[in-house]
Every structure is written in C-alpha cells, then in structure tokens.
Amino acid sequence: MLHATLRPSVVRMSTEPSSPPALAPIAERVAAPAHLPLPEVDGLVWRSLTLADAPALFALTAAVEEHDRHPFRTSLEETEEMFEGEWRDLARDTLVGLDVDGEPRAYASVDTRPGDASVVRAFVQGAVHPRWRGRGVGRQVLAWSTGRARQLLAASGKELPARIAGYVQDGDAPECRLFEAAGYTANRYYSTLRRDLSLPVPEVALGDGLRVVPWSPELDEATRLAHNDAFRDHWGSEPATPESWVHGRSMFAPEWSVLVVDDAAPDGVAPRASTGGGPVVAGYLLSGRYEQDWPVAGYSSGYTETLGVRREYRGRRIALALLSAGMTAYQAGGVEFAELDVDTENPSGAHGLYASLGYEKKDGSRMYSIEL
C-alpha cells in the first residue's frame, strides 16, 4: 500500500465550477460499515499505532521504498507527522500488524481534514513489508482502510460530495492493481518536473507596487488566506484551516520560500493578515528541503511545495516572478535542481509556464479514488 503523500505544486487560474447534482444523504451514499473487522493474517497481531511506533514505522517505510525503487525516501520527521493533528483519532484511524518479535510488518492510516467545504475527503495510506506480501495482507489492510474512511465520511455530517483517495507512483503496477481490485479508479495524474539550476534564471520585473519578499512567520496567516483564495477553484483542493495549514512542515525550507506582496492594495481586493495589518500577499511559493531524497535521485534539489496566485492578481507575471525567485534561492543554497509536482489536467497553463523555464518531466504519480 502507499506509504507517502504526494507533494503537490500548482499555479491556479479561474475555472468556474458546474452546478452539482442533487445528492442523497451522506450516510446513505458512503455506506459505512457498522463493524470493522481486523485483517486475519497468520503471524500478525493488530492494534492501533502510537507515537512510540514512529521509529519502527520509519524502518518499515524505508524497507518498502527501497524494495519498490521509489524515487524518494520518507524521513523520520515526516513519519512522526502522521501522528500529529488535533483532528486525528489515532486509536480508531490507524492500524499496525506486528510479527512475533513485535516488529511492524504492515500498517494503515486514514486521515481527513477539518476544513473541507465542497468535497469531504478521507485519505488512505499504508504499507506492507516486502517479505510479507503475497499473503493477502495488502488487500485486507486496504479493505480496513476503505471501511474506516467510509465511517469517517459518514461521521462528518457534511452533506457534500465525498471522496476516498490514495496516491500511487506511476511505475508501481502491483499497487495500482491493488487499488483497482478494491474498487478505486485512477482519477487524477501528476507529473514531477525538474529544472537544471546551472541554466540562467530569468529576472522578472513586477510593477504596480508589487514586490518579492522572503517568507516570514509574521506573514504566514496572510499567506494561508492567499492560498485559500488561489486554490478555491482548483480541483481537489479544500480550504486550509489555521491548524491544517501548519501541519506537515518538518521539511519546510523558509529560506527558500518567497512571497509577492502588495503594500497598497485597495480595501476589498483581498483579506489582510488576521491581525488586521500588514500587506496583502498576492502570491506565494513555499519550498521543502528533502535531503533524504538526494542520494536516491543522484542530485540535490529544492522542492516547490506549493505555488499560488490570488484571483485578483493573475495575469501580472507573479507566478513567473515567484518561480524565478525560488530558483535563485535554491541556487544560493548550492543545490543542483529545482523540482515540483503539477496536476496534468491543470487548466491554468502551468505546464507551458514550467516548460518555458526549462522544467522537464522526471516521473509521475496518480490519485486513485472512490467518488461518493
């Protein structure tokens, strides 16, 4: 099963949503099971995960990633993030199978996000040790995860379209077959792009009072507001709450993250920081530093986690300025490539923008989902 989350990067432009069809009550649509049986596998006993399991879970994940030749490695810090989030109920939303020596040989985690406002989502994640495959472990763990996801969606009480989703690397054929056999469909595809930083980085001039500034904690709330505005017309994106916005930052690289701000935005153009003061963040590029991936890739890189531009500021070269500033920061950090992920169905013209800057496809992944 999948053991790492996708690192998305998307530039957004306006797309108007169509009118949603009438829906049956969510409790009927998701068909949540009243009872959730544990997997039955000779040699494994099952319980919930705890934070104390993080080092052993990290070792399991590393064994899976090496065996499956995935183009990344999950750090211990990223593993520990699985246990974070005030909205999480680890006792009910996680599962680990232990062998006779108490070593984890399979695990599952189901997660939701509190801010979902147009589609309520549950994400499944897990792994099976290579030596324990071929015994139906993955099939049973995914069945448990899907059942728990249905329970979480029903318990949300949100009368919205619903989705159960998991992410798979394009080259992982067994994983794809596992999801397809469980009733999931590949509904979205993503490309990982990279750009050689030995090439010149273009200089981009911004007018009308816009300026590029480094990310700072003081502007982070304003950046969250900009993100929610930039991504409100993006397929699969939901509003980030203050809690979910800061979740998952173990690999965050503030020194490689930049913003475009408008100090003189007129009232009503965009909401300002929650303090009521400070500039409007018109666009942002947030970066990650995944040094554990570099030996696998064979080169060092700066990773663009998220890139967005507010609706009111599109068409003003802000995305280009952010990417250029980000690449300049990566160069100053001494790394060799810039990397990001992009939705292949992105309607904003992002692929053309990235190609014009010298980005090329490295590999890809896909989202499997059950739409409810």
TrEMBL record:
E.C. no: 2.3.1.189
GO terms assigned for molecular function: mycothiol synthase activity
Matching InterPro entries: Acyl_CoA_acyltransferase, GNAT_dom, YpeA/RimI_acetyltransf
Gene3D superfamilies registered for this protein in UniProt: 3.40.630.30
Segments of this protein annotated with the region Disordered: 1-21
Name of the protein: Mycothiol acetyltransferase
Keyword Transferase: yes
Pfam families tied to this protein: Acetyltransf_1
